[in-house]
Amino acid sequence: MNNNAADSRCICGSLTDMVPLSLSLPVISRQTDLPHSAYDWLNQLQDSCWIYVPGWNPKRRRVIVTLLHGNEPSGTEALLAWLKEDVTPACDLYCLLASVATALTPPEFSHRMLPGSRDLNRCFAPPYDDDCGRLARQITDDIAYLEPEALIDIHNTSGSGPSFAVAMDYSPRHLALISWFCNRVIVPDVRLGSLMEVDAGCPTITIECGGARDEESLQVAYQGIHQVAVHEDIFKSPPHEPEVLLHPQRVELKPGVSVRYHEAPCEDADITLWPSIEHCNFGTTGIDTSLGWVGNDGIGLIQALDRDGEDHASRLFRIDRGWLHPAMPLKIFMATSNPEIATSDCLFYAVPAD
Ligand SMILES: [Zn+2]
């Protein structure tokens, strides 16, 4: 990892465009001989780097970040596909491929972060004193240097599901930017140290373009990248107004609680959730829907803390003879059936469906 701004270097592709040398991470000018697969491309790049795509107007810049999580390939695949189209963007485009080494670690595109490392998209807040923190700091510094007019961070959801955006604000400029990708935005009220919380001086959005294995995800990412690249004014004439879902609750396991995903209650875990919980990512989940089995310990196994630390779990959920149900119709997002992600991150997000 390149931890020293003085090491900054430019690895030029076949084009001889001028690239700024003041970024702390390597900058690679748009390549003309791109490989077929995202894996081969990352193998050429080897580590975190910027891809610089010169636009018609070099005085303005837009930034696209992807691969903060090594197991979320759609942004990288979409960017590769779009670069192959050889389209000149309206203004300069800087695209960051973040966790290249993580994605390349076998099996490829399977590690959110490397074993023993922190989640990079939780490192955009102090302290910056480990490798992940230093990389987050370099990314933040580079973005500040670039002074972009828009910052977009492309992810896959942990489970299968439709695309949506996450943003700390829902101003008309945020909504316009989101509308090029999807039609729904979640505005959280808790801060986790993610990139979108950084004040980049411009509208900043996260795009969750759907699950890594959902066919639509690549299309969502590709279309969004293309639209954001080619439009002269991305804040004017958005295609539609996204739905805004304010302050969803992040639903987590309490510390030390174990979870399994299985069709029937498991004796060796505190909570059993159904593997089909990812279906709840679509539409509304009613009060009759069982999400899983919590047994005698009931609601005390999970928590839904707001920014003041108040727990909303017993308001959002009810227990019926050991089965976990919504206490009101809920819109559920980012439900995963991966126990590691459920334990290290969260079970899902939920907001009342009214
Ligand atoms: Zn992610």
Explain this structure.
With 354 residues, this protein is of the alpha/beta class. The protein folds into two domains: 241 residues, Zn peptidases (Aminopeptidase), CATH 3.40.630; 105 residues, no CATH class. The chain has eight helices and 19 strands. A ten-stranded mixed sheet has the order 1-2-3-5-4-6-9-7-8-10, with helices on both faces. Helix 1 links the parallel strand 2 and strand 3. The protein starts with 9 loop residues before the first strand and ends with a strand. The N terminus is likely disordered. The structure holds zinc ion. The site of zinc ion (ZN) has 5 residues, from loops.
Give the names of the bound compounds. Answer: zinc ion
Number of domains: 2
Report the strand count: 19
CATH architecture field of the largest domain: 3-Layer(aba) Sandwich
Biggest sheet strand order reads 1-2-3-5-4-6-9-7-8-10
Q: Based on CA inertia axes, which overall geometry fits?
A: globular
Sequence of secondary-structure elements: EEHEEHEHHEEHEEHEEEEEEHEEEHE
CATH superfamily of the largest domain, called what? Zn peptidases
Report helical residue fraction.
Answer: 10-25%
Q: How many angstroms does the end-to-end distance come to?
A: 47 Å
Low-pLDDT residue spans: 1-17
Named CATH topology of the largest domain: Aminopeptidase
Q: By helix and strand content, what is the structural category?
A: alpha/beta
What is the name of the CATH class of the largest domain?
A: Alpha Beta
Kindly provide the radius of gyration, computed on alpha-carbon positions and rounded to a whole number of angstroms.
21 Å
SS summary, helix count: 8
Largest sheet: 10 strands, mixed
Strand content: 15-25%
By oligomeric state, this entry counts as single chain
Mean pLDDT over all positions: 92
